[in-house]
Amino acid sequence: MVTLEQWRAYYDGWAAGDPRVASTGHEVADADLDRLGAAIARWLDLRGREHVLDVGCASGTLTARWASRAASGCGVDFSEKLVDAANAAHGSRNLTFHCAEAADLPFADGTFDCVVCFNVLLSLPDHGYVWRAIREIQRVAKPRARIVLGSLPEVRCQQRFFEVVRRAAPWWRRWGSRLKDWLRPLRSRETKILWFDVAALRRQLERAGFRVEVHDDPPFANYRHYRKSLVLRRAPPGGSR
Ligand SMILES: C[S@@+](CC[C@H](N)C(=O)[O-])C[C@H]1O[C@@H](n2cnc3c(N)ncnc32)[C@H](O)[C@@H]1O
Q: Is the CB of 7 under 6 A from ligand 1?
């Protein structure tokens, strides 16, 4: 298990690099980020009137792409260094960035029309912590808010993930890892990130009163091969649409 402090130290390190980092931790092509931002804005059905929140905003590179289509926005991150970079690069009267912890958000109940948490839940210490963060996101969202829980590694796609990683590695590493597979067939396939049983999570969220759409991640880095994004909206009473 990676602790919260270890994750924070890791993400603090991003701030020392290119301030345009987003999601992957290295520079991503503008066109890919634009496409990802457009997908998030579409999922949220932004009309320019909303007050939105981005939980785990890093240096705001992605936030600015979709939150600029709302009336006002706010990004939070537990890395003070990334928050400083976000304010320097994208801060404005309508878009502000603050230091906060995903499971302890400094906002009143029912503040936001939309909440996004993209590519963050996978780097929390454990699934209990994930649920604390999800409940906190629900608390600060308005009753009819749209919520995106984005880029969750799907446990059923884990094999594909390992294949993608192996294909992307240089040939000597590919052969090295193949050799290890031959020598140690029972080698542990643990990763630092959390994996999600998306179908089970969807059922849990539906039991909690949400309508849930499940999407493949948009084409961006290699995420679409093994990650899913959930779009939530609270079901109206009686279950009608
Ligand atoms: C992989 S990055 C994704 C950044 C951004 N959402 C994007 O997709 O471009 C994860 C971000 O979540 C932040 N983060 C991780 N755990 C957090 C927590 N417990 N509370 C607040 N922020 C957290 C990290 O500092 C980092 O900026």
A: yes
The Å distance, Cα 239 to ligand 1 centre, comes to: 33
Strand-strand pairing, 51-55 and 112-118: parallel
- Ligand 1, atom nearest to 101 Cα: 20
Decide: 77 in ligand 1 pocket, CB within 6 A.
yes
Question: Which domains does the chain show, CATH number per domain?
Answer: 4-156+192-234 (3.40.50.150)
Residue 100 identity (one-letter amino acid) = A
Tens digit of pLDDT for each residue in 93-117? 999 999 999 999 999 999 999 999 9
The residue nearest atom 26 of ligand 1, judged by CA position, is 58
pTM, full prediction: 0.90
Looking at the DSSP bridge assignments, the partners of residue 105 are none
Q: Which residues contact 160 (CB under 8 A, 6 or more apart)?
A: 225, 226
DSSP track, 136-197:
HHHHHEEEEEEEEEEEEEBGGGHHHHHHHHHHHS-HHHHHHHHHHHHH-TT-----SS--B-
**CA proximity to 11, closest of 92, 74, 80, 107:** 80
Tokens, residue 234: 């609270």
